Amino acid sequence: MSDAAYQVLVYAARYWFAALAVFIVWRAALATFREVRIVRDIRRRIAGVSTFAELVLLEDESGKLTAGKRYPFAHEAVLGSSPGCDLHIRHRDVSRRALRLTAEDDCVRLKPSRKTAALLDGEEIRGETLAFGGSELRIGALRFRIRTKEAFDEGL
What's the pTM value of the predicted model, to 2 decimals? Predict the structure, then answer.
C-alpha cells in the first residue's frame, strides 16, 4: 500500500471514530434529557397526591418489554394483561388481573390473584403482603423494582 493511501485510510479511521464518539455522547445526552423530562412529568402529576408508588421494569427475560419502563400509580391499581387494568402489561406471564396494588405512606400492599405466581424479594407471595421501597417483584419472566413516594422524593 502506498504512503498516500495509508494516510487517507488513517484520516478516514480517525474521523470515523471521532464521529462515532460524538454520536454516542449525543445519544447519551438525549437519553438523560428524556429521563429528566419523564421524572419532571411524574412529579408534576403527583404533586397533589398523598400516596404514590411506581413499578420500574428491571428485566424481561423474554426480551419483549423494554427495561426501565415505569408504571406509576396513585392509591390503588390493578396490574394485569386486561386492557381495563390500571397497569396494563401485555405479556404471556401476566394474567388478566394478576395483582392488586395499594400505595400507602412508605410501602405498597400487594395482593396477587389465585392464578398469579409472584415473588417478592425471592419469596412467594401468599395472600396480602407489604412491600417497601426498593423491593423486587417478580412475575414470571418480569422483574420490577418497587418505588414508593418516600423513595421517589429522596431520589432513590
Answer: 0.65
